[in-house]
Amino acid sequence: MTQRLKRAREELAVADEQRAALAEAADDLRIRAAVADTPYAERELGDAQRHVDAMDKSRNELAKHISDLQRSQDELLNRLVPDPL
């Protein structure tokens, strides 16, 4: 369980870095699209924004997976070490 949690956290860190790079690229394209005012520039911006949105979705799913793993780990630990009364 611990290894799975560690791996998922590492994947989340990578996803955060990738998302930041994609968002930066989309911001650059947003400026270019505003200056160029062409259908091609708008299409490039749309494509970049879809990639950012997809990365956001993937990142959120990964964060939920981590939360689920943490909850499962906590439940297992609670069963192994019962609360003293």
Give an overview in words.
By secondary structure, the chain is mainly alpha-helical. Helices cover 91% and strands 0% of the residues. It contains 2 helices and no strands. Helix 1 packs antiparallel against helix 2. The protein is rod-shaped. The mean pLDDT is 93.
Tag the structure with descriptive keywords:
single chain, 85 residues, mainly alpha
Compile the SSE list and pairings.
Elements: H1 2-36, H2 39-80
In short:
The protein has helices spanning 2-36, 39-80. By secondary structure, the chain is mostly helical.
Mean pLDDT metric:
93
Structural class: mainly alpha
Approximately how much helix is present in the residues? over 70%
Regions with little confidence, pLDDT below 50 for 5+ residues = none
- What composes the largest sheet? none
Distance N terminus to C terminus?
28 Å
Please give the count of helices. Answer: 2
Report the β-strand fraction as a percent range.
under 5%
Outline type:
rod-shaped
Rg calculated over all Cα atoms: 20 Å
SSE series: HH
Number of strands: 0
